[in-house]
Amino acid sequence: MAARDAAWEALRDEFALPPASMENLRQLFLTEARAGLAGSDSSLRMLPTYLTRRVTGEETGEYFALDLGGTHFRVLQLRLEGGGRIGPVRQRQFKVPDAAKRGSGAELFGFLADCVSAFVAAECGGEAAGDIGFTFSFPAAQTAIDAGTLVAWNKGFAAADAIGADVVALLQAQLEARGLKMRVTALANDTVGTMAAAAYSCPGTAMGVIFGTGTNAAYVEQAAKIGKGRGVEDGSRETEMAINTEWGNLDTAAVRNEHDAAVDAASENPGLQRFEKMVSGMYLGELLRTALAAPAVRAGFSRTCAAGFDAAFSERFSLHTSTLAAIEADATPDLAEVAHLLAEAGVQGTLADRSLLRDACAAVSTRAALLAAVGIASLLELAQSEPGPATVAVDGTVFERYPGFQARMEGGLEMLLGPERARDVSLVLTKDGSGVGAAIIAAAAAQARGETQ
Ligand code: GLC
């Protein structure tokens, strides 16, 4: 029993995020965000998006949207009807092969164009023309609404020669090589797309946030607060612009533990995306896997169970965040579902083992939810000129499916903002908004060019 208690205490202390640490991180977030906006060195890139119009819900027309951001690539075709209404959406989803994720830029963008060809053959009678909104969920330094160079890959992508290249030009060239007569007219991060999709029916939406494979957020900033040469030129009539914060890269050195450091060091992008590595779906399972292998924690499990963990979870990323979610969802008194999940992985655990495992999942996921709250509370301070009701559009599997994630996050918001201001924040699930949002942004770009459909 003593070893079990010691293991639990180690986990609890390592993954604790006391209110004072949350507050310090919020202050750091604000300092880094202001530096990023000004164009100074900062872990928050605060990327300009060149989206300078608020979505009104009156954008109309027929558009394609392409959505690349994680395990799948989606092709959509839809009609924006105005009045906040969207017609039926035709869509197909394609799994992105590892070879395309880690090959050359031409291979990856060639694969995307092949998927578009397949969609056009199956859904459009082999012929299609029109504007495309391209959701690209990686940091891209935009120079226009339809141009942006890739800053860095993450989430397991590594087509190295694409870094520094304009991703719209890469995609357009591959589409043309296949005789496709479509034109990429808007580039959008998934957070910006999610914000646009929510704003289509709820124009006051304050920000778009993703808690999925990765994590990030976008909001609308006043032009006057954005540094010169970062998208808003002198004498321009623009008064505001959506900013892609890329908060996944926030420097979390002050709050990270030894397991975070180990996960980061073993990753493809050490030193980068440190907030993301503590919060997002790609990493929560890996963090727990790393913690379970630490001697002080391992000693808390029965010998058979610990040996089972060693065998089942020896490979990086072999323990998935979806398994943690399933473990925490088990409400049976004897944790029968956990026993079943472990048995499937070839692990045998006593009730004490299963209950320690569930507590360990909760330690990792609760800290993630509290960090998520720090992100939202910090960004709210930038997004709102004065306190008041705020609609936050949120998407991503962790937010949608991880049991208790939203409630713990709301608890964190209450700690940081106080109960009254926290009540003003509505977290609204905007499912699959990123693709639809890119189509809306393409429509807004067409309006700005004076072309209306
Ligand atoms: C990563 C990407 C970011 C994206 C997020 C969620 O953090 O850098 O651009 O928004 O994942 O998909």
From TrEMBL:
It is an enzyme of class 2 (transferase). SUPFAM superfamilies: Actin-like ATPase domain (SSF53067). It catalyses: D-glucose + ATP = D-glucose 6-phosphate + ADP + H(+); a D-hexose + ATP = a D-hexose 6-phosphate + ADP + H(+); D-fructose + ATP = D-fructose 6-phosphate + ADP + H(+). Its EC number is 2.7.1.-. Keywords: ATP-binding, Glycolysis, Kinase, Nucleotide-binding, Transferase. Residues 207-443 form the Hexokinase C-terminal domain. One of its GO terms (molecular function) is fructokinase activity. Pfam families: Hexokinase_1 (PF00349), Hexokinase_2 (PF03727). Pathway: Carbohydrate degradation; glycolysis; D-glyceraldehyde 3-phosphate and glycerone phosphate from D-glucose: step 1/4; Carbohydrate metabolism; hexose metabolism. GO terms for biological process: glucose metabolic process; glycolytic process; intracellular glucose homeostasis. Residues 9-200 form the Hexokinase N-terminal domain. One of its GO terms (cellular component) is cytosol. PANTHER family: HEXOKINASE (PTHR19443), HEXOKINASE TYPE 1-RELATED (PTHR19443:SF16). Belongs to the hexokinase family. This is Phosphotransferase.
